[in-house]
Amino acid sequence: MRTMMELHQSCSNLREYGSEQCLLSKPDGSSTFVQGDTSILAGVYGPAEVKVSKEIYDRATVEVLIQPKMGLPGVRERAREQCVRETCEAALLLTLHPRSSVTVVLQVIHDDGSLLSCCLNAACMALMDAGLPMSHLFCSVTCAISKEGQIITDPTALQEKESRALLTFAVDSVERTVLMSSTTGSFSVQELQQCIAISQKASEQIFQFYRESVKRRYSKIK
Amino acid sequence: MRHHAIHISVLLAEPHFCVLVELGKTRVFCQVSGELVPPKDSRPTEGIMFFNLELSPMASPAFEPNRQSELLVTLNRQLERCLRNSKCIDTESLCVVSGEKVWQIRVDVHVLNHDGNLMDAASIAAISALSHFRRPDVAIQGRDVTVFSPEERDPIPLSIYHMPICVSFAFFLQGSYLLVDPCEREERVKDGLLVIAMNKHREICSIQSSGGIMLLKDQVLRCSKIASVKVSEITELINKALENDRKIRKEGGKFGFAESMPKERITTLKRDEVPVEMTDVKETASDIVDRTETTAEVVPSAVLVGMGTAQIGEGIVNSWALEEDEEDEPQTEDRKTGTVSDVCFCAVE
């Protein structure tokens, strides 16, 4: 349990994170992503057969399912699914697989803040593991603005509860543009741009992490 | 029979307790939670146990969300029989105020990877999570109930009499061949299935035979002997994992799903906390804000039309009516119309 001192000092830190790829045998790609205590398990199936009602004639259909820890998925999960789906649709080269489906299933193992970011990061790693063609990678960072106006990156659940605004951005790997943003709470235009700039800076760390984990994974192949 | 890598990892934050079980490649995740609810009318002095097993679409391409398949119903029913009908949990101790407030213990099992033998894995996960679960302490003064948070008073474990664990047997060629703990491919071609739920005291909690094959008495007895050996092994493993977790918690070490990720594998990578550079963030932000043009369009102010109705915007001319123009319909408070696209504002949360 972190003390109050530590909480204040860690305002502009990314919590320790880790990931494991290819851990499930059935899905085409799978990964876990852990940020502090928040952990998400992602599984990807694709390109696979799609129901006729959902097929699109020139592109693949992306479906995202978020399963919460307890109970059945509700409206909150549907909102998050939409954010993840739109980011995935922007990154994947869907026109290479018309009339197919790409299904991303995310299971919440533990939620200690920055849930949507962790979902997006896990989804990206799982899509990489599945080998689906993408035009760029994406990662996500959450910023919380505390009541005093301090910007905290990668907040814990406690910090999120005490903040007055919570902003999540998905950033792409080529030009660091913002792919998706999801915000709650009130904040000024200045604070919004600051959070975007901070997210873009923090995303460098995460992309570096992606690169290292993939390099490590394929290091034994001659 | 598969190598039992029963990897049980239990998580950090109270009051959520969860367990991840790996039986070969089959992975199952179980979460136990408790809340205070009014009891059932037929049993006012007993707590409520609620079991829910979900086949996540991640586990197999055949599993679709929100589809009641036969497998799901069978697994749910068998899990309930194994844990509820065997009375392994003392539900009387879950009563707080008789007839008014009891604990409802909810067990959610999620199947993450289907490589066969989901029943065994689910029962192991469920009973381990129940053994690990701690409910908040309560104090009763007359009719008032105070629930203490885990920081104020140590949470209390459930009173579990015994740990029933299911063992599955697959039969082939009309009972002449027997496989313990079948994997997914073996399950697909089996003739019949026998599931025995037993505890380490060699008491059979439930037997279910499906597939329509006829078994001889000595076959069933043989299976029960094999089951008792397996159950004692598995109970050992569970107790060891729980003991490990208790030790780590007492020493104050770090534990949880994050810690249990094996570090020496090539497919895993961990990074420590890194600070984020915030040096010229403020300048970049101000730069962008100054560069953007301010929007010229001003949101028109609301006009109160009557009691409880307000109108924003004028609306375009009604082209449905046959006669000449009608009055603009008064809009409800939070609907915005006008020459801009129709946007409906709903109050969220």
From TrEMBL, chain A:
Q: Does the keyword Cell cycle apply?
A: no
Organism this protein belongs to? Cyprinus carpio carpio
Give this protein's Gene Ontology molecular function annotations. Answer: DNA binding; RNA binding
Q: Name one GO biological process term.
A: poly(A)-dependent snoRNA 3'-end processing
PANTHER family in the record, alphabetically?
EXOSOME COMPLEX COMPONENT, EXOSOME COMPLEX COMPONENT RRP46
Q: Is Cytoplasm included in the keywords of this UniProt record?
A: yes
Q: Which family does it belong to?
A: Belongs to the RNase PH family.
Name the domain of life this protein comes from: Eukaryota
Record-given protein name? Exosome complex component RRP46
Main location class: cytoplasm
Quaternary assembly: Homodimer. Component of the RNA exosome core complex (Exo-9), composed of EXOSC1, EXOSC2, EXOSC3, EXOSC4, EXOSC5, EXOSC6, EXOSC7, EXOSC8 and EXOSC9; within the complex interacts with EXOSC3, EXOSC8, and EXOSC9. The catalytically inactive RNA exosome core complex (Exo-9) associates with the catalytic subunit EXOSC10/RRP6. Exo-9 may associate with DIS3 to form the nucleolar exosome complex, or DIS3L to form the cytoplasmic exosome complex.
Q: Any idea which UniProt keywords this protein has?
A: Cytoplasm, DNA-binding, Exosome, Nucleus, Phosphoprotein, rRNA processing
Question: What residue stretches are annotated with the Exoribonuclease phosphorolytic domain?
Answer: 15-133, 136-201
Where does the sequence pass through the membrane?
Answer: none
Q: Where is it found, in Gene Ontology cellular component terms?
A: cytoplasmic exosome (RNase complex); nuclear exosome (RNase complex); nucleolus
Identify the Pfam families for this entry: RNase_PH, RNase_PH_C
Signal peptide start and end residues: none
- Supply the InterPro entries for this chain: ExoRNase_PH_dom1, ExoRNase_PH_dom2, ExoRNase_PH_dom2_sf, PNPase/RNase_PH_dom_sf, Ribosomal_Su5_D2-typ_SF, RNase_PH
Intracellular or extracellular location(s): Cytoplasm; Nucleus, Nucleolus
Automatic annotation (TrEMBL), chain B:
Q: Which GO terms describe its cellular component?
A: cytoplasmic exosome (RNase complex); nuclear exosome (RNase complex); nucleolus
Which is an annotated Pfam family here? Answer: RNase_PH
What is the name of this protein?
Exosome complex component RRP45
Q: Which InterPro entries match?
A: ExoRNase_PH_dom1, ExoRNase_PH_dom2, ExoRNase_PH_dom2_sf, Exosome_comp_Rrp42_subfam, PNPase/RNase_PH_dom_sf, Ribosomal_Su5_D2-typ_SF, Rrp45
Q: Where is the Exoribonuclease phosphorolytic domain?
A: 6-136, 162-228
Where does the record say this protein resides?
Cytoplasm; Nucleus, Nucleolus
Q: In Gene Ontology terms, what is a biological process of this protein?
A: U1 snRNA 3'-end processing
Q: Could you tell me the superkingdom of the organism this chain comes from?
A: Eukaryota
Entry keyword set = Cytoplasm, Exosome, Nucleus, RNA-binding, rRNA processing
Organism classification: Eukaryota, Metazoa, Chordata, Craniata, Vertebrata
Q: Which GO terms describe its molecular function?
A: mRNA 3'-UTR AU-rich region binding
Entry's family note: Belongs to the RNase PH family.
